[in-house]
Amino acid sequence: MNTNLMFSSKTDQHSTPQDFFDKLDDVFHFDLDLCADINNRKCEVFYGVEDSGLDQEWIGTLWCNPPYGREIGKWVKKAYESARDNSATVVCLLPARTDTKWFQDYCLNAEHVFIRGRLKFGDAVNSAPFPSVVVVFRPTLAGSLS
Questions:
Q1: What is the pTM of this model?
Q2: What would the pLDDT profile of 95-119 be if each residue is shown by its tens digit?
Q3: What is the 3-state composition of the chain as percent helix, strand, coil, each rounded to the nearest 5?
Q4: CA distance 146 to 132
Q5: Does domain 3-141 have CATH number 3.40.50?
Q6: Contact (Cβ atoms closer than 8 angstroms) between residue 58 and residue 64
Q7: Which residue, 32, 42, 67, 132, could crosslink 115 as a Cys pair with Cβ 3.0–4.6 Å?
Q8: Which residues contact 44 (CB under 8 A, 6 or more apart)?
Q9: How many whole angstroms separate alpha carbon 69 and alpha carbon 13?
Q10: Distance between CA atoms of 144 and 26, rounded to whole angstroms?
């Protein structure tokens, strides 16, 4: 077995399973999907590649399933800062990479729930080769997010 394939992906885009999103949306009532395209968006309003979600102001209750590549830390930092600035509640679906700088610096002080088992993203036949976590950055945590 080629173990390199177990920890790699042909893409850094992982479309959120609809039933998983629907349960979160029932709780949070999202205003906007921060990282989407017309085919995988979870909210009517979304930022696509052409909108460059990282360059937009984040306000409201937002869903974020960012690209899982090298830029993921920028998305997590922006979620953290948007909550700290009291402008947004950002709910992120992330790979559970607890040893990374971005997880240590931003996620540990936020609410987080580790997902039991492995998610099946998009139209995938198999489950993801990594565990997932939902991280919630809220303005109410702004005092503890220093």
A1: 0.85
A2: 999 999 999 999 998 999 999 999 9
A3: 30, 20, 50
A4: 25
A5: yes
A6: no
A7: 132
A8: none
A9: 8
A10: 26
